[in-house]
Specification:
The protein is mainly beta and 295 residues long. The chain contains 2 helices and 13 strands. It is globular, with a radius of gyration of 26 Å. The chain starts with a helix and ends in a 6-residue tail after the last strand.
Length: 295
């Protein structure tokens, strides 16, 4: 065998061995990655809203959530108003998941004829096998009042009709049965009734869920106002039950709030829950997978 042939055979052997080792290394790295694949906590809440306030849950990518919300009159009005059922305010909303961690939404409320829109971004997601102990979500939105302008003492600027809000949700699913979250919120109204009133209202949202069965849960939604309270308003309080039926989630609840966006229920709740000023209401959520995930 010539030296050239020997060198060529040796080179082929070395190259083949190197390729084999490299392939084995890739297989080992793939196995390590698979074994270390992150898992996340899911199902902390059955809906993207606790009742009034946003929850730590997010829509999946390509999911459309059609939401119909109703708030009726006061139960204390008795049979003459059919315990409030003769009176109703509603909000129709559409929320969409752009990614698993980013969603947007729009809505229209009959109360004050308001249009609202928001975006919701999950910066940190609670891990199920290590990782972060909590989820952290940022929400920002705006509401525009479209009722006819009645204040003749002020010029009808579009900006005067607009309010904004920002909140950070910090939540944790403690077990399959219990989840809890807190959410500092700031609402800014461009126009308030009097010059000495604060344009900013600060609140702390507290939301909890206790699972009762496979498809039902007890939920509480409480927003104490910390600063900038609108005169005559009360803290919004809601409690009720989530009932899941396939693609639907029914939220049946009792509340002292009529408003169904952050600006409305944080600055416009005038009924006192603890004195019996309670309304029945419901949220109906129906989700549709309109854009399939790529495998």
């Amino acid at each position: 065998m010539s030296k050239i042939t020997y060198i060529l055979l040796t080179a082929c052997f070395v190259i083949t061995a190197a390729n084999t080792i490299q392939a084995q290394e890739k297989d080992l790295l793939s196995m390590v990655r698979d074994s270390a694949k992150k898992e996340y906590a899911t199902g902390a809440f059955k809906s993207t809203r606790v009742i009034n306030g946003q929850s730590m849950e997010m829509l999946g990518k390509g999911v459309l959530d059609v939401r119909i919300l109703h708030r009726f009159g006061l139960l204390s009005e008795g049979a003459k108003q059919f315990f409030g059922l003769d009176q109703a305010s509603m909000r129709l909303g559409f929320d969409y998941g752009i990614t698993d961690n980013l969603s947007v939404g729009i809505g229209r409320s009959t109360l004050n004829k308001e249009l609202d829109a928001f975006f919701k971004f999950r910066a940190i997601r609670q891990g199920a096998n290590g990782g972060s102990p909590v989820s952290v979500i940022w929400v920002s939105g705006a509401a525009v009042q479209t009722m006819p302008w009645t204040d003749t003492t002020r010029k009808n600027y579009f900006s005067s009709r607009v309010a904004y809000y920002h909140e950070i949700i910090i939540g944790r699913k403690f077990s399959n049965a219990f989840s809890l979250q807190v959410s500092p919120i700031m609402v800014h109204r461009n126009l308030v009734a009097k010059a000495d009133q604060d344009n900013n209202t600060w609140a702390l949202g507290i939301g909890g869920r206790l699972k009762l069965s496979k498809r039902t849960a007890f939920v509480v939604d409480y927003h104490p106002i910390l600063a900038g309270r609108e005169p005559g308003t009360k803290d919004p309080i809601s409690a009720g039950f989530d009932i899941e039926t396939g693609g639907h989630v029914f939220q049946l609840h009792f509340s002292n709030s009529t408003g169904m966006n952050e600006k409305a229920f944080l600055t416009g709740t005038t009924d006192n829950f603890w004195k019996g000023d309670i309304r029945f209401g419901f949220n109906l959520s129906r989700v549709f997978q309109v854009n399939r995930k790529k495998k």
